[in-house]
Design goal:
The complex is a heterodimer of chains A (about 300) and B (about 250).
Chain A: E1 7-16, E2 19-29, E3 34-38, H1 45-53, E4 60-65, H2 74-80, E5 81-84, H3 96-106, H4 113-119, H5 135-147, E6 153-157, H6 165-180, E7 184-189, H7 192-198, E8 201-206, E9 209-214, H8 216-223, E10 226-233, H9 238-243, E11 248-254, E12 257-263, H10 266-277, E13 282-288, H11 292-300
Parallel strand pairs in A: 3-7, 3-8, 5-6, 6-7
Antiparallel strand pairs in A: 1-2, 1-4, 8-9, 10-12, 10-13, 11-12
Helix pairs in contact in A: 8-11
Chain B: H1 5-17, H2 20-47, H3 53-84, H4 87-92, H5 98-123, H6 136-160, H7 164-180, H8 193-200, H9 203-215, H10 224-244
The chains are: A alpha/beta (about 300), B mainly alpha (about 250).
Chain lengths: ~300, ~250
């Protein structure tokens, strides 16, 4: 018997007046994985997540989180989950250690707050007011608050939005650290790079509907089989040799640079074998693989920033 | 049941004190008004044979009501700022119960009401010597009871205020006319009939009557109607607020 999923969502729907925010959404989150709900702003990511957290009621459908019904058992659930909300704030003049102490006082068996502050790199900010923290520090504090009750499942909603690349990378390491402690992470992001680097599995959502679910690499293989190899060579016969390969669709030459396009995972191997067989001398060799961003464009017909 | 209430009250008190302008506005201003008016009107009273009623008799009531209104203004502002910043929502996503969060704010406001009243009495000793005639404890209780009732109206206002920027103006538009109709300046039964009806639907009218009575030594039993009306309005406002209050 397969282990019961940590989160089970089945055919939920949520409308605000005439606007349908989430429509017929279903997915499972498995124990110990980082699961990402990805899509553009307004796609229904936050609404879906807040329904799972028990902050919103669905119009239809079934949600089960750690075996609990998030609307009916919301207080029992809150003991076992950690939540970081999108664009949340705290009192401007609350100190870091006060916020952590308040949160610790709310749960039955909290972890050591001071150690948590240290682990998240806020040791020298423990007496700083919330309003004086940088964006990255605020998000690290929110992660600390989400971890204070040693939760089994952690929700992170648009965790790195508005952070600079360096702070973003630091946060990614923290999120991987949460998974390494054996916890399950459910996050949303509109950054495809973040999803690709962080998530074990992703669900792509657009206009309130799930389009596909799977590990990022598998989604890329499934929807974007195109592979591109770029070589630089002065061998004038090379172009013809590549064209003869079965999986090659086109070869484009610009000066010494040849761009070879084809389908399937074997393309790269075939090109390398061809180079060796014909002793073609190259100055440069690189491959371009499609990304989750390309998958998204392929599936929705628009870019994520639309 | 009210897990976190004590921590939240303590924290909100500390946070409130860290903002100097807020403290001056809610605590300093009523005390200052009281002292300045006492001085001005007190001197006048000495020279005039028929002392204006307002000066000697109703000044403590006037300032007490001012303290209560200040508490409400401050509550409306804080609740709307917390809502706009997502702070209420963030707190709600913890085991904190919704009513714990709101109760903490009410208690913080009541504490500051009591502190302001105490400061006012200290500062006003010269003009209102503390003799056995004035039942201070009763007066304090009457003020806190009135404040709770008016604060429930504050939650109703906080429910309808769209953004924090409108909190102050909208609250003022509701609170200051209520102040004017409360019977403090013009006796309620001398108001035009329409305004009389309005005044009787507002908690401040009963608060003024109760505070005035208690200050002059009348027992609580003599003001059973006022107490009942304040309690009834508190219940009504709380029930309506619980239905229409928005957390985000």
């Amino acid at each position: 018997m397969a282990p019961q999923p940590v989160v089970h969502v089945s055919a939920i729907r949520k409308a605000y007046g005439a606007t349908v925010a989430v429509d017929d959404v279903s997915f499972d989150v498995h124990e110990g994985e980082i699961f990402g709900l990805i899509g553009p702003n307004g796609a229904g990511k936050t609404t879906t997540m807040e329904c799972v957290e028990g902050l919103r009621a669905t119009d239809r459908g079934i949600i089960s989180v750690l075996g609990l019904d998030p609307t009916r058992d919301v207080y029992a659930l809150q003991e076992r989950i950690g939540v970081q909300l999108q664009e949340a704030q705290l009192q401007k003049r609350i100190k870091v250690r006060e916020a952590v102490a308040l949160w610790a006082s709310l749960y039955g068996s909290p972890v050591d707050g001071d150690r948590l502050i240290e682990q998240l790199g806020l040791g020298d900010k423990r007496n700083a007011w919330f309003m004086t923290l940088s964006g990255g520090q605020k998000q690290r504090l929110f992660i600390a608050l989400a971890l204070i009750n040693d939760p089994e499942l952690v929700f992170l909603d648009e965790l790195t939005t508005g952070l600079d690349p360096q702070a973003r990378r630091a946060i990614w390491d923290l999120v991987r650290g949460i998974r390494e402690r054996g916890k399950t992470v459910f996050l949303t992001t509109h950054l495809m790079e973040e999803a690709e680097r962080l998530c074990d599995r992703v669900a792509i959502i657009d206009h309130g509907r799930i389009i596909d679910i799977g590990p990022p690499a598998e989604l890329v293989r499934r929807h974007c089989p195109e592979r591109t190899v770029i070589v630089e060579t002065e061998d004038s016969a090379a172009s013809e040799r590549f064209r003869a390969l079965p999986q090659v669709r086109s070869v484009e030459a610009r000066g010494a640079q040849l761009t070879i396009r084809g389908l399937g995972n074997d393309l790269v191997t075939q090109v390398i074998q061809c180079l060796a067989e014909h002793r073609i001398r190259v100055f440069d060799f690189r491959t371009e693989l499609p990304t989750l961003e390309d998958v998204f464009i392929r599936l929705t017909g628009h870019t994520i920033r639309d | 049941m009210m897990r976190g209430l004590r921590q939240l009250i303590w924290l909100e008190l500390k946070i409130f004190v860290r903002e100097p302008m807020g403290v001056i506005g809610t605590v300093g201003v009523p005390v200052l008004i009281f002292v300045v008016l006492s001085r001005l009107l007190g001197e006048e009273e000495l020279s005039a044979s028929d002392a204006p009623r307002f000066a000697s008799v109703d000044l403590p009531i006037f300032v007490a009501v001012l303290i209560a209104l200040n508490a409400v203004l401050s509550l409306v502002t804080i609740v709307t700022i917390y809502r706009e910043g997502g702070i209420l929502k963030r707190l709600r996503a913890t085991p904190l119960r919704s009513y714990t969060i709101l109760t903490a704010h009410v208690i913080v406001k009541l504490l500051f009401t009591a502190v302001t009243l105490a400061l006012m009495i200290l500062a006003g000793r010269r003009y209102f010597p503390l003799d056995a005639e004035i039942p201070l404890l009763s007066f304090t209780l009457a003020l806190l009871f009135s404040t709770v009732s008016v604060l429930s109206l504050g939650f109703l206002i906080a429910s309808i205020v769209p953004t924090a920027r409108f909190a102050q103006p909208i609250a003022s538009v509701i609170l200051y006319p209520m102040f004017g109709l409360s019977g403090l300046f013009v006796p309620v039964n001398e108001l035009p009939p329409v305004l009389q009806a309005v005044a009787r639907a507002l908690p401040l009218t009963y608060a003024v009557s109760l505070l005035r009575g208690v200050w002059h030594g009348a027992g609580w039993s003599a003001h059973g109607m006022d107490v009942a009306a304040l309690a009834l309005l508190f219940l009504a406002f709380t029930v309506i607020s619980a239905r229409v209050f928005r957390w985000e």
